[in-house]
Amino acid sequence: MAAKDLKSADSELACAKINLALHVRRKMPNGYHELETVFAFVDCGDVVSVKPGKGIGLSIIGPFSGGLSIVDNLVLDAAKLLASHSDHSHGADIILDKRLPVASGIGGGSADAAATLRLLNRFWNTRLSTLQLAELSEPLGADVPACVLSETCVGKGIGQHLLPIENGALSGCHALLINPCIPVSTAAVFADWDGIDHGALQGNNAKDMALSGRNDLQKPAEQLVPLIGDILNRLGQTEPIMARMSGSGATCFALYETAEEAAAAEQTVKLALPDVWTMIGGLK
Length: 284
Prior knowledge:
The chain is α+β, with helices and mostly antiparallel strands and 284 residues long. It contains 9 helices and 10 strands. It has helices at 74-86, 109-123, 130-136, 144-149, 186-191, 206-212, 218-224, 227-236, 259-272, and strands spanning 10-27, 33-51, 56-61, 92-97, 153-157, 161-164, 174-179, 242-245, 252-256, 277-282. The strands form 2 sheets. Strands 1, 2, 3, 4, 5 and 6 form a 6-stranded mixed sheet that branches. The chain has a 4-stranded antiparallel sheet with strand order 8-9-7-10, with helices on one face. Helix 1 (74-86) packs parallel to helix 2 (109-123). The longest helix has 15 residues, at 109-123.
């Protein structure tokens, strides 16, 4: 199949992922952890673009591009996976605009890989459905299928058994993301998990699950990076709908009814903690 004719570069947003709740139920014999989580996505993040090219190549720009490999990268893995699956022989020059902090618990590489799949599916006209892309993406990582869907859903197993749910009462909310600019090792956080099953998700909608839920990785992450606790305390003082750490950290988030409330909270926190990274976006 011929690649699409483009006026310039085609692009796709790699939406930031937040875990409204993240329950660690047990460690399985294969070393993975059985999880229950509520994924949600914000309408901001990295941007993946593509132009016609010979072979599959990658360049990385943006404020968080430093130190990222253009050879060993999930974006390339995703592109090669789709090319192999579709027996596609055309190339692509991919540009990753890295706007989200690395190793930050908000999707990052997983969201970039997912955006690459959606983008090249369109660019190469491979005509896979979003669900087919999500299934194809499973070998790339536990969070990648959810990032392909990029909509609120419950994830179980290692996070790849997905059930889309409505935002409901959270529709129209805005998320303030705050990262202390300190990378956190996912392996180290899981290693410090207390090993106790504190129970399953409760509720029938995203808001109830989120408010009654927890992040079982928050405490071990705070022990590694105490600034996470300080950020969450300050977010709590801004009277959000909720505030929590996402994933294995170190990004924290708070939800507000309006963009204005989120912006006011951002200024309040940055006055006290001027060196943190922040971003505001609406829940998708």
